[in-house]
Design a protein that fits this description.
mainly alpha, disordered C terminus, globular, single chain
């Protein structure tokens, strides 16, 4: 009886996280079965066991399973990054790309396209994107040392994002042929199609390291609800917190963009959707946002394969169509709140 009571208390305390986790296995099975070649549940089980149709085993092992792993990891990184950014800046419209990491990573990938390295050495595409994300962090670190406050951090991130975007536009403008420009634009829209195990291995370290660093910010984020002065009086080092968040964003978001391109709105809308089901504490939103982000990216990838279009839609297009209405609704609420002051 005591065990059941304890189990009930645990479920009530972690209801949102448990319910989201329960949704993950069926969503993953659906993602593995849907595609140009349908693979049923029994065929999936036989393929996992190493028996059954060799074609199904090949499709599952070389195409769909790496695609699913990349989608889950990218969604989890972007979801938790959005929750951390919104908790730190105390702004529900904050996005993981706010510090310019996504644009800097995209610039690195564009350079790999522009110089033809991605065609000769496919692994150069994710590697250059990851290097670009880290390179974009360096001027931001210098900027924060001189102006140690969140507003300066946002301004520095916006400057890096604008500069990276201008460089991307320059590369598109100077591309040697329209096919190269189209290849760059297609990648910038974000996708997890045709991802291999090389991409999964490349993402493993950024995935675990960024989620570990994001989770360490939870107590300080809760204290920041009361204001910077109160958080500092409680013993939290706010300068160290900023460095921790910036490093985690560079590692996590940079790694995600490196393997999937720029997939927008995941980090914006997932924490916003889940926040009403929590006690409004940032720490309670971190892990649910990670699982919610993984679910959203997987769902969007399933829609990409189900929508009857002549060419497969890019994943970033689908997440944008989902995210823009929510973003617009939140912006209207913010304007209404300002007018009521």
């Amino acid at each position: 009886m005591r065990f059941l009571s304890g189990l009930s208390s645990f479920y009530k305390a972690h209801r949102l996280l448990i319910n989201l986790s329960i949704c993950l296995p069926p969503m993953a099975l659906l993602s593995l079965s849907i595609g140009s070649t349908h693979i049923g549940i029994m065929a999936l089980w036989q393929a996992v066991a190493g028996v059954g149709d060799p074609t199904s085993r090949l499709i599952l092992g070389l195409l769909r399973l790496p695609r699913l792993c990349v989608g889950l990891a990218v969604g989890a990184i972007l979801g938790m990054a959005g929750a951390v950014n919104q908790g730190y800046l105390r702004n529900p419209l904050a996005d993981p790309s706010l510090l310019g990491t996504s644009n800097a990573a995209a610039l690195g990938a564009v350079l790999a396209f522009y110089f033809g390295l991605s065609a000769r050495f496919p692994i150069c595409l994710p590697l250059f994107a990851f290097i670009g994300a880290l390179a974009g962090l360096l001027p931001l670190l210098w900027f924060v040392r001189r102006h140690n406050d969140p507003q300066s951090l946002i301004l520095g991130g916006v400057a890096i994002a604008a500069f990276s975007g201008a460089c991307i536009s320059l590369a598109l403008n100077l591309s040697p042929n329209p096919f190269a420009a189209m290849e760059i634009m297609t990648w910038l829209m974000g996708a997890i199609t045709d991802r291999s195990w090389n991409h999964v291995w490349l993402l493993i370290a950024p995935f675990f390291l960024s989620l570990f660093l994001f989770r360490r910010t939870a107590p300080a984020l809760d204290a920041l609800i009361l204001g910077d002065d109160v958080a500092a009086s409680l013993g939290f080092d706010l300068a160290r917190l900023r460095w921790l968040i910036m490093a985690a964003l560079a590692i996590g978001v940079g790694g995600a963009v490196a393997v999937s391109g720029a997939i927008g709105f995941v980090g914006l809308i997932v924490p916003h959707i889940l926040r009403p089901f929590t006690r409004q504490l940032p720490s309670e939103l971190l892990w649910p946002s990670a699982i919610g982000g993984a679910l959203l990216v997987t769902l969007a990838d399933i829609l990409v394969r189900l929508l009857p279009t002549q060419n497969e839609l890019q994943l970033g297009v689908v997440t944008a169509f989902i995210g823009v209405p929510i973003f617009f609704r939140q912006a209207i609420k913010g304007v209404g709140a300002m007018k009521s002051l």
